[in-house]
Amino acid sequence: MPEVQRIDVRGPRFAASITTVLLLIATFLSLIGVATGDLAAAPLSARLLDPGFLLVLVIALLFVWGVASPRTAPWGVLFRRVVQPRLAPPTEFEDPRPPRFAQGVGLLVTAVGLLLHVAGVPWALPIAAAMAFVAAFLNAVFGLCLGCQLYLLLQRAGLIGRRRPSAA
After folding, report:
1. Which of 28, 65, 94, 112 matches a 20 to 30 Å C-alpha distance to 59?
2. 3-state helix, strand, coil in the chain (%, to 5)
């Protein structure tokens, strides 16, 4: 079985820190935007140009980037080129698959919020942004990656990931 590449655990936490700030702003903007009025009556153009919608859309696109090409995703590149050289050498490493899966979970949550917002469902966007904010905050501040935990749970259940040979 090929060995899985390992990544510095500080990289995903750094990315989660930036994502936390962006999601906090997005949650605030979505709370004061079109979503607070009669969203279903608002024209589609108003829903699409709502600042909260636009920022959550950018965040969702960053999640897509993180899933599709984690090595070139902006926060990872920034960490590896600017932050990591200024830190002590890493002492902890992790499998990159759980953080990548977590990016997919963030994408799913924000995409659902975006689609429901466009469909005129009130409060969908601020709720989705707030849920993603909580997950990013827990990762950034406490190192608790909810998406990673979900990945490990699904892996243990045999639903995703490679099955590892059991110890005899």
Report:
1. 94
2. 70, 0, 30
Q: Map tokens 């909580």 to a residue.
A: 134
Q: In this structure, what are the phi and psi dihedrals at residue 42, rounded to the nearest 5 degrees?
A: -70, 140
Return the bridge partners of 7, or none.
Answer: 94
For residues 90 and 73, the answer to whether their CB atoms sit within 8 Å is: no
List Cβ neighbours of 117 (8 Å cut-off, separation of 6 or more). 30, 35, 39, 47, 50, 53, 56, 124, 125
pTM: predicted TM-score of the whole model, two decimal places = 0.89
- 18/78 Cα distance (integer angstroms): 11
CB 20 within 8 A of CB 62: no
Distance CA 30, CA 120 (A): 13
In the block, which residue shows the tokens 């060995």? 3
Q: What angle do CA 18, 22, 24 make, to 5 degrees?
A: 115
Ranges in the chain, pLDDT < 70: 1-4, 35-37, 162-168
